[in-house]
Amino acid sequence: MKKRGKEKQMGKRRTAKDLVRTGCLLCIAVCLLTGILTGEKTRALDQSISLGTQAGDDINVKMGDILSFSLNTTDESSVYYSMRDEIASVTYYVEDDYNEVLSKQSDTSFLVAGAGSVYLTVVVEDKYGEEISEHDYRIVSAIDMDNVTLDKTSIKGYRYGEAYDYLTFQVKVNGLEGVYAEDIAFSYTSSNEDMSVYCYFDNGQIEISTSSVGVTQLEFTINDKVFSLKLTVKQVKLSCGTSLLMVEKASKQIKVQGISGKVTWESSNPNVLSISKSGKLKAKKTGNAVIIASVGTGKVGCAVSVVTAKRKKVIAMANKIGKNWKYSQPKRMQNGYYDCSSLVWKSYKLENKYFGMKNYAPVAADVGKWCVQHKKQVKGNAYKNIQKMKYRPGALTFQTGSNNGRYKGIYHVEMFAGYTFEGFGSDGKPVLGTKWAARGDNYFYGELWAQP
């Protein structure tokens, strides 16, 4: 029979879901029929529907009903009354073969397998096979919400480290298997306004996404029925944070916070920094390492730099100046004031390094020139060097290229204060960031690097 297009038929379904939905329909049909045959309690009802007198009204049914269709040829108001003597055959079919509402059981019966609406087409032919009538009836299927439940009433999740990507959770909605978003009315509320939570219903389940940590009570309204679920998201981190500066030969106990369970520890450079099964760090010599703790289903880490006692004082002074003193080039040598190069000079005085000028801080270009002349420059791509932890806290980076007549056109210097652990890349390796004496994390790095 020739397929007919109907403008009034519901919009086309997404092609990518057609086969999935067909499978869902078959599963629903088997489950419903199995319940009927075994005598188990089910919502399915046998409905005998006589067609012809509906006058365009919808035919309302419930999911699980089995519909048996016939033509009303005895009522004078029926569209089939006038042709009763000519009718030889009747064909019932659904225009969309992949519809999720009606599943054909026999020539005259259909199982209501999903929610939504679809048009049933009825074609009447005479004994010669000629079509004498064609009518469409809109079948509207509603969901019986009495036995709909959530498969869980609480969820606990964990956010590892400082990453802010969304965590996603799924909640199965029992009784709505194979039901899609367009077939129901769905809304939700969250009791915690400080948590960013997004919820979406489709294919018989609710998907919950959040970029936050905290506790919230979620209420889902599905076709006017309300369901509650408690969502708890805890932050998993190390007690030392994501960045740590240690002095060689020192030790420190660290712990995983936010989750309980067995912890597996590892150090990326055991020769520099070791860690025991209980989480005790021991700094062996100067250098850098990443400490990683595996617990539950995730990992957290910390970037650790081991320095000499003097270098730790240099970094502490630089941090103090950069975060507490006032920036002023005219007053750069006065106590409580600094500019970029005087910060470096005042801090490195604690290591008796003066960059060629013992009584007055040189400008950034002269600091850079001194570093190059004394073979303190570190060559290579800065980002790669950071990921390989080639720089030590106290390293200097210079911005070059200015037309100022100075060495390499250097016009600015910053002091590197250590690494931050930013998370894991797609290859599973740690991703590292930078800390700065006078800037925020990951703020800046220049073209020329040196390690005094």
Structure description:
With 452 residues, the protein is mainly β. It folds into four domains: 15-142, Immunoglobulins (Immunoglobulin-like, Sandwich); 146-236, Immunoglobulin-like (Sandwich); 239-307, Immunoglobulin-like, CATH 2.60.40.1080; 309-450, endopeptidase fold (from Nostoc punctiforme), CATH 3.90.1720. It is 14% helix and 40% strand. The protein has five helices and 31 strands. The chain has helices at 18-38, 309-324, 340-348, 364-373, 382-387; strands spanning 46-51, 59-62, 66-71, 89-94, 102-104, 109-112, 116-125, 131-142, 149-150, 154-160, 167-174, 186-190, 197-202, 205-210, 214-222, 225-238, 243-247, 251-253, 256-257, 264-267, 273-275, 280-283, 287-295, 298-307, 326-327, 337-338, 377-378, 396-399, 412-424, 430-436, 448-450. The strands form eight sheets. Strands 10, 12, 15, 16 and 19 form a five-stranded mixed sheet that branches. The chain has a five-stranded antiparallel sheet with strand order 27-31-28-29-30. Strands 1-3-6-5 form a four-stranded mixed sheet, with helices on one face. A hairpin with a 5-residue loop joins strand 7 (116-125) and strand 8. Helix 2 (309-324) packs antiparallel against helix 3. It is elongated and about 120 Å long. Residues 1-43 have low confidence and may be disordered.
Give a quick account of the main beta sheet: strands, pairing sense, barrel closure. 5 strands, mixed
Please name the CATH architecture of the largest domain.
Answer: Alpha-Beta Complex
Structural class from helices and strands?
mainly beta
Average pLDDT value?
89
Just give the CATH class of the largest domain. Answer: Alpha Beta
Strand content: 35-45%
Number of strands: 31
Spans of at least 5 consecutive residues whose pLDDT stays below 50 are: 1-43
- Overall helicity: 10-25%
Determine Rg (CA atoms, Å): 36 Å
- Count of helical stretches: 5
Q: Span from first to last CA? A: 87 Å
Q: Rough shape?
A: elongated
Number of domains: 4
Task: State the CATH topology of the largest domain.
Answer: endopeptidase fold (from Nostoc punctiforme)
